[in-house]
Design a protein that fits this description.
Largest sheet: 5 strands, mixed
Structural class: alpha+beta
Shape: globular
Mean pLDDT: 91
Distance between the termini: 27 Å
Oligomer: single chain
Strand order of the largest sheet: 5-8-7-6-10
Order of helices and strands: EHEEEEHEEEEEHEH
CATH topology of the largest domain: Signal recognition particle alu RNA binding heterodimer, srp9/1
Low-confidence stretches: none
Strand content: 25-35%
Helix content: 10-25%
CATH architecture of the largest domain: 2-Layer Sandwich
Number of domains: 2
Number of strands: 11
Length: 197
């Protein structure tokens, strides 16, 4: 059955997320001490302990940690790196240097399931938080081509080598274009609704 979409829909922008954890103390320590979030509030509602955390003073919270994650949630049947309920929680990083620093921090903290990846459109590091949630830290590149795509990212290489290899891989892909051109093209498609009269 085809449903007619309304001509106007208010613009929405993703803001924050909350997820349930088994050990809220361990999760709070990881997100604050290892990843640099600040606790902005905490409390209890409906029997749940809540910890609100943010890295941006313009956002009261970017993440809410909530007690109550049930036991025995099965792993993702396709790949244990990715979650069975939340596939991944992704954080944008300013530069390749910052991504290298995060990699170093994760290694020094013995964080589990660290997987550096090159998607062509972004350089990423995947890892697990103490609850096994899959986290992604990423930096956009200057190129786009149809996704998904993933090859290992080798941090033993220089920034110049990673940049040159990534551009070469991207330029070989069908549909490759500069990311700025892709963004300009999609800006004409997204949120283009006629306001209600």
């Amino acid at each position: 059955m085809d449903k007619k979409l309304p001509q106007y829909r208010p613009n929405i922008k993703f803001s924050h997320m909350g997820f349930s954890v088994k050990d809220i103390v361990k999760s709070e320590d990881f997100y604050t001490r290892v990843l640099g979030f600040t606790v902005t509030d905490r409390g209890n509602v409906l029997g749940m302990d809540l910890v609100f955390i943010s890295r941006d003073p313009n956002d009261h919270h970017q993440i809410v940690l909530a007690s109550g994650k049930p036991d025995n949630i099965p792993p993702n049947p396709f790949d244990r790196q990715f979650g069975s309920v939340i596939n991944q929680i992704s954080f944008n990083v300013a530069s390749l240097d910052d991504l290298r620093e995060i990699y170093s921090i994760l290694k020094s903290e013995n964080v589990q399931s660290i997987m550096p990846a090159n998607h062509g459109i972004a350089w990423s590091i995947y890892c697990h938080d103490p609850e096994g949630n899959n986290l992604e830290f990423f930096v956009d590149t200057d190129w786009y081509f149809p996704q998904p795509f993933l090859v290992p990212l080798d941090f033993s290489k220089s920034d110049a080598e990673i940049l040159a290899e990534t551009e070469a891989v991207c330029r070989q892909q069908e549909g490759c274009e500069d990311y700025k051109d892709w963004r300009a093209r999609f800006s004409k498609v997204m949120n283009q609704f006629v306001p209600a009269a």
